[in-house]
Structure formats: structure tokens, C-alpha cells
């Protein structure tokens, strides 16, 4: 487990550094994103959809506030068009992260995990727990990008990754965009409740997953003694 965690921490640090840089410089903020989206809607709804997808795709590199973008997309585009734009953006971000890591990730993998046995252990660990990580990755910032990169880096089959990624992003896109579509400046509570509900749901799932994994590991150790 330690070799895989080491790779995850390095990837998370890379994404966190871009987030910190953008936050400190003020280049990308929720307020600026809202202004960009409203300006795009004033020009053309299709341009707005393209901008939403582009922002979510850019999240692979510059850590965009995904939840805010999705809710704003629903508010400005409506539930259906917002869901389509959001799904396309998240899908492209995941696939691109997978493909780049599958093509070039070995250099990082070999540099961080030098022992062949440890690399094999990391791959086997992600094969066992990777699907759950991908499905619950929306629980915290940067974890979706990290999980997509790990899937490519550890050699998860593309079709399997694609199914898991779609299972993760489709409900998320539909729920957040619907919440945005029924919210307004006078009544923002649907979006607020949705954000809190999603965080609570994913964190609860992580808690039970961690507890069951810890219990299974303890039982395995006891049986080996």
C-alpha cells in the first residue's frame, strides 16, 4: 500500500501546487468564472457550453472549482444542457489524464518506486481498490484527477476505467446541474443543500470503505499469525 500512497501523494502535491498558485495570484476565482460564464451566455449558449467543458477539462492542469462550475452551468444553461456540457468536460479531463499517464507515467512511476516488487504491489493494490477510489473520488478536491492518472499509470484497462469514470461523473453532473437550474440569487438554497449533501454522502462512503478495509486488513493479519 505504501508505494501506491507515495505516488498518490506526489500527484496530489502537483495538483495542489497549481491550486495554491492560482489562489494566491487570483488568476482563477469563483467570481471570475461566473463573470466569464455570464459573458459567454450573453454571446451564445453554445459558447457557454464550450467554456464550461473547457474549464472542466482545464481542471486536469489548473484545479478549477468543479462543483461551482457545475452548479453555475445548471443555473445559466438549464439542467439538460448544463449536464451535457459538464459531462463532456469531465469525461475529456479523465480520459486525457488516463492517456497521458499511460503514455508518460512510467517515468514518474519508476523514479518514485524503484523496486520492481513494490511497483507490482502498487499495481495490484490499485487493481483491488482503484474502482472504489474512482467512484468516490468526488469526495475531495484533486482526487478525481489523481485517480484518473493512477488508472493510466498502473495499467488499468481503458474500457474498465471509462465505465467507472462515467459511473462517477454522470450522476454528479446531473445532480449538480439540476440543483443549479432550480436555484436563483433570491433562493440559492437548492445549490447549497446539494453541495452539502454530496459532500456528506461521499465522505460517509469513504468512512465506511476505510473502516471495512481496515477491518479486512486486521482479519488478514490475525489469520496469518
Automatic annotation (TrEMBL):
Localisation: Cell membrane
Entry's transmembrane regions: 46-67, 74-100, 158-179, 191-209
Coiled-coil region(s): none
Domain of life: Bacteria
Keyword set, alphabetical order: Cell membrane, Membrane, Transmembrane, Transmembrane helix
Topology in membrane: Multi-pass membrane protein
Main location: membrane
VTT domain: residues covered: 64-181
Family: Belongs to the TVP38/TMEM64 family.
Protein name in UniProt: TVP38/TMEM64 family membrane protein
Amino acid at each position: 500500500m505504501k508505494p501506491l500512497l507515495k505516488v498518490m501523494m506526489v500527484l496530489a502535491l502537483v495538483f495542489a501546487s497549481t491550486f495554491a498558485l492560482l489562489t494566491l495570484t487570483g488568476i482563477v476565482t469563483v467570481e471570475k468564472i461566473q463573470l466569464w460564464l455570464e459573458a459567454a451566455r450573453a454571446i451564445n449558449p453554445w459558447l457557454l457550453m464550450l467554456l464550461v467543458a473547457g474549464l472542466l477539462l482545464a481542471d486536469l492542469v489548473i484545479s478549477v472549482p468543479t462543483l461551482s462550475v457545475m452548479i453555475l452551468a445548471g443555473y445559466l444553461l438549464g439542467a439538460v444542457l448544463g449536464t451535457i456540457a459538464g459531462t463532456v468536460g469531465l469525461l475529456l479531463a479523465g480520459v486525457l489524464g488516463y492517456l497521458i499517464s499511460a503514455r508518460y507515467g512510467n517515468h514518474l512511476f519508476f523514479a518514485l518506486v524503484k523496486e520492481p516488487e513494490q511497483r507490482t504491489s502498487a499495481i495490484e493494490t490499485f487493481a483491488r481498490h482503484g474502482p472504489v477510489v474512482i467512484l468516490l473520488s468526488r469526495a475531495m478536491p484533486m482526487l478525481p484527477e489523481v485517480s484518473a492518472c493512477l488508472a493510466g499509470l498502473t495499467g488499468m484497462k481503458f474500457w474498465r476505467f471509462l465505465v467507472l469514470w462515467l459511473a462517477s461523473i454522470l450522476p454528479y453532473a446531473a445532480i449538480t446541474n439540476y440543483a443549479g437550474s432550480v436555484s436563483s440569487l433570491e433562493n440559492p438554497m437548492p445549490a447549497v443543500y446539494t453541495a452539502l449533501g454530496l459532500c456528506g454522502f461521499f465522505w460517509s462512503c469513504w468512512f465506511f470503505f476505510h473502516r471495512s478495509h481496515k477491518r479486512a486488513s486486521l482479519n488478514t493479519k490475525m489469520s496469518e499469525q
